[in-house]
Write a structure and sequence with these properties.
This protein is of the alpha+beta class. Helices cover 41% and strands 20% of the residues.
């Protein structure tokens, strides 16, 4: 007996509805887990930028505890600022998140600065989609670590790359000029916002 075309349509509709419901259920179940993992990844990046050490095998709860003990979030001049405080509740470092376009999408991260805003404590990235092996190397420790301790009292832009014709504080990534320039532009703009928010150049 020949099957009715309506039977096939109804059958496909039921199968599609069932699969959609299953996928939707899986998404709703894993959504909080994914969100928690993303939050912990961001917190780890902030700790790295502030040069705050934590065990490599630390659990999510341990990361959360260390983060909450060390870093406070404040609003200064309308800007969200991450603050590490020390003796007498005095700031030891300020952190500012950044975001900007690069070659293949948006780059996001955080830069931590000294209390006088004249020295970089560290940077880290929380999101980037640059080419693996090229621009994607901005996520490597070799690139990020060279920013630690950089003096921002340059007569030119706060941060500059070393070239054959002029000195600078850090090295760009070979073969990834567009990504390197985008990172430098984003960081310098963020440093400008930081100095304006905290009260101008404190140098």
């Amino acid at each position: 007996m020949k099957e009715s075309p309506w039977f096939n349509l109804v059958f496909m509709f039921i199968i599609t509805a069932v699969l959609t419901s299953i996928l939707s259920g899986i998404y709703e179940y894993t959504k909080p887990i994914i969100q928690t993992n993303e939050d912990i990844t961001i917190k780890k990046a902030h700790l790295y930028a502030f040069n705050i050490e934590y065990p490599t095998d630390a659990s999510s709860d341990e990361i959360e505890k260390i983060y909450n003990e060390k870093i406070q979030v404040e609003s200064i001049d309308g800007t969200q600022v991450y603050v590490v405080k020390g003796v007498d509740d005095q700031p030891e470092a300020y952190g500012f998140t950044f975001a900007g376009g690069a070659l293949w999408g948006e780059i996001k991260g955080i830069i931590a600065l000294s209390p006088d805003l004249n020295k970089v404590i560290g940077i880290d990235f929380t999101e980037q989609n640059e080419t693996p092996g090229l621009g994607g190397r901005i996520d490597e420790a070799e690139f990020k670590e060279q920013f630690r301790g950089v003096d921002l009292n340059s007569e030119a832009a706060p941060l500059t790359y070393r070239t054959t014709s002029q000195p600078g504080q850090v090295d760009a990534i070979t073969g990834a000029t567009l990504t390197s320039n985008s990172v430098l532009k984003i960081l310098n703009e963020t440093i400008g916002v930081a100095k304006k928010s905290i009260g101008g150049d404190q140098g």
